[in-house]
Amino acid sequence: MQFLDQFRGNQLVTESDVAGFVWQGTPMRLMDRQRGIRKPRQLSAALTFRTVFTPPDGVPPYADQEGPDGFQRYKMRGDDPEHAENRALRQAMLHGLPLIWFVGVERGTYLPIYPVYLVAEERELRQFVVALAPEQRYLLGVSDAGNADDVRRYADRITRQRLHQPMFRARVLAAYQQRCAMCRLRHVSLLDASHILPDGHELGQPVVPNGLALCKIHHAAFDQNIIGIRPDLQIVVREQVLLEVDGPMLRHGIQELDGRRLEVPGSPAADPSADRLEVRYNDFLAAI
């Protein structure tokens, strides 16, 4: 995990990035190209597990998902709970060992989430329960009706912070080739993944068609209804802002966007959803 810390600035890693890991003078693979669960021969328990990339319009090969209690699930290998790889994960669970979860955001590119812990096993469903933070490990035993809702809300918040938000950002920026959809700025540290519709909306899921890669100033202008986007991808600047006189940032950075077409991935699966844009544009018009 200390080895992976060096990639935190970029967030994402490739298989070649992690191929250089060495433990006690011996190279150790952190990912297996053919399998999702990695137990190095030097260890008695699993070290990492992986969820492969699924295109925005694709169906994941494994049904890894969030459970009704707010905790993530990770599917076992195959139908046999006693498969060697499942036993390796079980050993990590029984001994409370921290694991690394590589979540695919592009083909061959992963977001490493760590440390995570396996805190329970649902053998009949062939899956493990995953805690995404050390403090989340202790929530699963709290089951009385008086605080079950509080536990769920807290688990949901941790899941958003440690999985959904980083995954949403990584996948949106990858789809937009690491550049702002309005001004084409490529400085990744200055880019955000903006939601077209917020989390609380019925269409506000953290998926690429509900996202836009925007630099921080255009993200703020979009959120504040200074800038709107029509369903046909034309950018609209609020009329009173067009009449303002200020410095070059307002003129070149905001006003000159009016009438320009939004830059999008160009893939029907990744392009912003026209339905979502229409709802958001109506909100923009109502705010004028």
From TrEMBL:
GO terms for molecular function: endonuclease activity. InterPro entries: HNH_nuc. Pfam families: HNH_2. Keywords: Endonuclease, Hydrolase, Nuclease. It comes from the Bacteria. Residues 180-229 form the HNH nuclease domain. This is HNH endonuclease.
